[in-house]
Amino acid sequence: LGATVCVPGEPRCVICPLIELCEARRLGIAAELPRKKVKAARPVRRGIAFFLLRKDGAILLRKRAPRGLLGGMMEVPSSEWLEGRLDRVAALEQAPIETRWRALPGIVRHVFTHFELELSLVTARLPTERAAAALEGGQWCAVDRLGEMALPTVMKKVLRHAIMATSVKGGS
Question: Into which CATH architecture does domain 44-166 fall?
Answer without folding.
Answer: Alpha-Beta Complex (3.90)
